[in-house]
Amino acid sequence: VHAAAGSPVHGAQHETGTPGGARGVTSLTADPDRPADVAVSLVARRQRFRLATGRSVDGYTLNGVSPGPEIRARAGQLVEVRLVNASVPDGVTLHWHGVDVPNAADGVAGVTQDAVPPGRSFTYRFVADQAGTFWYHSHQMSHEQVRRGLLGALVVSPAAPPPAGTVDVVALLHLYEGARTVNGREGDLRAEARPGERVRVRVVNTENGQTPVWVGGAPFRLLAVDGTDLNGPAPVRDTAVLVTAGGRADIEVTMPADGSPVRVHIGGPAGVVLGSRSYDAPAAARPTATLDLLSYGKPAPIGFDPAKADRRFTYDIGRRPGFLDGRPGVWWTVNGHMYPDVPMFVVAEGDVVRMRVSNHSGETHPMHLHGHHAVVLARDGVPATGAPWWVDSLEVGNGESYDIAFVADNPGIWMDHCHNLPHATEGLVAHLMYE
Ligand code: C2O
Ligand code: CU
């Protein structure tokens, strides 16, 4: 486990192992006697703490820092995390965002466990069977606790040892009391990379809104989205990638032969500066072009036939006046119903599920499905032509509709909610349940 958030990991794997085709059916429930390969203890506290620049923040920490320790595992390893609540008055949990864990480890207070009260602990165990970029965060009063720092990055590398000459760095975006940070620091994060080296920058967007990422000084490839490699991604330049709230994007840059540095912009002038002799990379203006993931990369089999769906659902997002917890307001609706009266989506294990997610609520919603990855089939009825685009977090703009499909291969009760977390507090939540 690398607990040094912000330091690049040299020699870590370039994930060429699984091109973006089928995601394996999960093999999740570990033998209870199997010892952990990666064992971590995380102690949650309510406290004031300082960002690297010295700014004082009133929030929460894990092992005294926020973001919490960067957890690294290899595919197939058993990860065991003991969460201790030292002093979070409202209780705390940990959700493994994007990892299709067994339901009991999903960390949703009130659904899969009770929030851990002060003085108590809870142990999460899961097999990290999918290599990729993930993150973890509290799922108790999520809006408040995530915003104030109960979060961290989780990276699962492929099982095979890494080739030499690659650099792997996490860039976790978070706003602390309005201060925009990457790995908890305001301003640029610097990572050493020599000419010709390939660098994988794992962008994690923990914010409530979508963020653009672009690169100045070199072309880049978008290797993976939401912990899943794309198939045959081509290099692009002068193009931005939009990273959904809660989503991840893995960017690969090959360092220029002449030794000039490269700037990966994360939502603005600041971001990650890659270099060796110098880190003096000028800012590049945000490109007007945006990568369309519906047509990026090369098609590949997805491992099931979405035309033969066992279940078809609509997840239609609207708004209407009503009462939520006795408070009057204009609240979100799912299929015309207000939380908590939204009928569950019921599936049986093994079902191929299709869902049309549509939005006429007047605002954008980054929709996050727990426990499963879905493949995007179409937007506004226009079918995908690129690599299989697997998501756990999908930005659905007002007026848009997406057709997605997934295999119900992970029994339990799973949230499917908006990751603009104030919206989830305002009821934009539904559940998927196995019969
Ligand atoms: Cu990242 Cu239900 O959450
Ligand atoms: Cu929303």
TrEMBL record:
<keyword id="KW-0479">Metal-binding</keyword>
<dbReference type="GO" id="GO:0005507">
    <property type="term" value="F:copper ion binding"/>
</dbReference>
<dbReference type="InterPro" id="IPR008972">
    <property type="entry name" value="Cupredoxin"/>
</dbReference>
<feature type="domain" description="Plastocyanin-like">
    <location>
        <begin position="53"/>
        <end position="159"/>
    </location>
</feature>
<dbReference type="Pfam" id="PF07732">
    <property type="entry name" value="Cu-oxidase_3"/>
</dbReference>
<protein>
    <submittedName>
        <fullName>FtsP/CotA-like multicopper oxidase with cupredoxin domain</fullName>
    </submittedName>
</protein>
<keyword id="KW-0560">Oxidoreductase</keyword>
<dbReference type="InterPro" id="IPR002355">
    <property type="entry name" value="Cu_oxidase_Cu_BS"/>
</dbReference>
<dbReference type="Pfam" id="PF07731">
    <property type="entry name" value="Cu-oxidase_2"/>
</dbReference>
<dbReference type="InterPro" id="IPR011707">
    <property type="entry name" value="Cu-oxidase-like_N"/>
</dbReference>
<feature type="domain" description="Plastocyanin-like">
    <location>
        <begin position="332"/>
        <end position="433"/>
    </location>
</feature>
<dbReference type="GO" id="GO:0016491">
    <property type="term" value="F:oxidoreductase activity"/>
</dbReference>
<dbReference type="InterPro" id="IPR045087">
    <property type="entry name" value="Cu-oxidase_fam"/>
</dbReference>
<dbReference type="InterPro" id="IPR011706">
    <property type="entry name" value="Cu-oxidase_C"/>
</dbReference>
<keyword id="KW-0186">Copper</keyword>
<feature type="region of interest" description="Disordered">
    <location>
        <begin position="1"/>
        <end position="32"/>
    </location>
</feature>
